[in-house]
Amino acid sequence: MSNVLLVGTHWGDEGKGKVVDVLSENAGGCVRFQGGHNAGHTLVINNVKTILHLIPSGILRDDVKSIIGNGVVISLEALEHEIKELMDNNISIENKLFISQSCHVILPTHVALDIAHEQSLGKSSIGTTGRGIGPTYEDKVARRGIRLIDFFNTDILRKKLEKSMKYHNFLLKEYYKSDTISVDSVLDKLTPIFDRIKKYVCDVVPLILDLNKDSNIIFEGAQGTMLDIDHGTYPYVTSSNTTLPGLITGTGIGVDKVDYSLGITKAYTTRVGHGPFPTELHDQLGLDIAKWGGEVGATTGRARRCGWLDLKILRQSVELNRIDGIALTKLDVLDNLEKIKICVDYGDIDYESFEVSDMEYLEIDGWMSSTVGITDYDKLPDNAKKYIKTIEEISKTRIVMISTGPSRDQIITLEDIFA
Ligand code: GDP
Ligand code: IMO
Ligand code: MG
Fold it and tell me: Whose CA is nearest to atom 25 of ligand 1?
């Protein structure tokens, strides 16, 4: 069967959740491989909106297994909360959710460290989601992390927590001058939650391989290429590999199992949090696009910064992720514009001032008519087609899906991704 990687090509929030939901109609599995509940993936079905942070976006379909790979960091509180929200909305979880026992667990001290570190950075803060993502990955790499598998033996868990939390508490108290957190309080809080969710914890690799014998699988990226710890706008990034290599390390699945890489690209560019953003619009137009596109963070509720589509980044994303085709989302948000700019290139980014040299834009005429809900490519206005063709030519990549609204059915499909 066929497997598809779905990856955000810019700074996240490209509409990955919606596209995963559309494609999962033809899949048997949906796998998250990195990030944590810093993600916010929005699905709209029959006017009902669901925002998923940790659980793969395939969960809304009864015949799709939702799998969380070892590369994801887990907040037990967030996981239980999300499961409860889904169940309250009559979405079944049983026999549909599987979580790798190797996932690292976000502890309350990681959250405290994330927040304290951000505060200490002042004006040069990253603008993290404050959910403990960075400190948890730090501990993973430093080999003092706590994994789900550790929760099966409370004695061993206590010993491991004592070791790593001694370090966390030293930092909290001595370096950040903040409150410490006791091991007992963490055990009291997290072990009952683990007991309730442990039925979902297993070795997911055999499951993925077995499922793949007769089902297509979607690998759902979180964040976006420019937030990748190695290839993004460092240090203004998240702490995982959001790109194709993250799929390999974050699941244990071979690179030969990735049949198609689908880049998810928004028709304009947004960023939430701090850091350079070459095409950012600092004027009323930026605010208008934010309003038309509902650009409010699905995780933190922060306003997203908006700007023109950055094709320099798109070309880098195509290379890094070996992208075969692009799903262009939120085309409808540009419906009202007389002129639309596309950034084709620029020089260096100054990481102190965030200024960028030699910005090069193309300007094309807008289409000034509604594309909302169009499902047939031929019905798109000519200038919208011109916009699409320009993106294809400059990125040297085909646009295979076009999203024309937040709903599952507001989509133009030009290629069968799983074929
Ligand atoms: P993700 O993190 O990549 O899954 O994206 P988010 O869910 O954080 O943000 C995308 C937002 O755009 C959500 O509110 C979606 O409901 C919405 N959305 C997705 N596709 C479209 C589209 O084609 N048009 C419009 N207007 N909204 C869309
Ligand atoms: P989805 O999957 C947009 C950003 C944060 C911050 C930086 C580091 O919905 O596209 P972190 O808490 O990860 O240490 O924060 O990364 N960020 C996202 N921005 N969409 C996301 O996820 C994001 N996840 C993290 O705003 O700038
Ligand atoms: Mg999002």
Answer: 405
Q: Are 306 and 270 in contact (CB under 8 A)?
A: yes
155: amino acid identity, one letter: D
Q: Where are the domains of the chain?
A: 3-95+203-413, 104-200
For ligand 3, a single-atom ion, the residues with CB < 5 A are 13, 40, 298
Please tell me if the CB atom of residue 15 comes closer than 6 angstroms to any atom of ligand 1. Answer: yes
Ligand 2 mean position, distance from CA 10 (Å): 11
126 ligand 2 Cβ < 6 A: yes
Does this chain's domain 3-95+203-413 share its CATH topology with 104-200? no
Domain 3-95+203-413 fold is Adenylosuccinate Synthetase; Chain A, domain 1 (3.40.440)
Give yes or no: 110 in active site: no
* Tens digits of residue pLDDT in 393-404: 999 999 999 999
Annotated catalytic residue, options 10, 37, 41, 117:
41
d(CA 112, CA 176): 10
Ligand nearest to the CA of 335: 1
Instruction: Kindly give, in sequence order, each residue whose CB lies less than 8 Å from that of residue 145, ignoring residues fewer than 6 positions away.
Output: 104, 105, 136, 139, 164
Report pLDDT digits (tens) over 95-144.
999 999 999 999 999 999 999 999 999 999 999 999 999 999 999 999 99
Instruction: Classify domain 104-200 by CATH architecture.
Output: Orthogonal Bundle (1.10)
Kindly identify the ligand whose nearest atom is closest to the C-alpha of 34: 2
As a whole number, mean pLDDT of residues 181-201 equals 98
- Residues of the chain with pLDDT > 90, as a percent, come to 98
DSSP 304: P
- Which stretch of DSSP H or E encloses residue 135? helix 133-141
What is the average per-residue pLDDT within 335-355? 97
d(CA 272, CA 286): 13
Check pocket membership of 13 for ligand 1, CB cut-off 6 A. Answer: yes
**Global model pTM greater than 0.85:** yes
Q: How far is the CA of 13 from the centre of ligand 3 (A)?
A: 4
CA 169 and chain centroid, separation: 30
Tally of CA atoms within 13 A in the half-sphere of 419 that contains its CB: 7
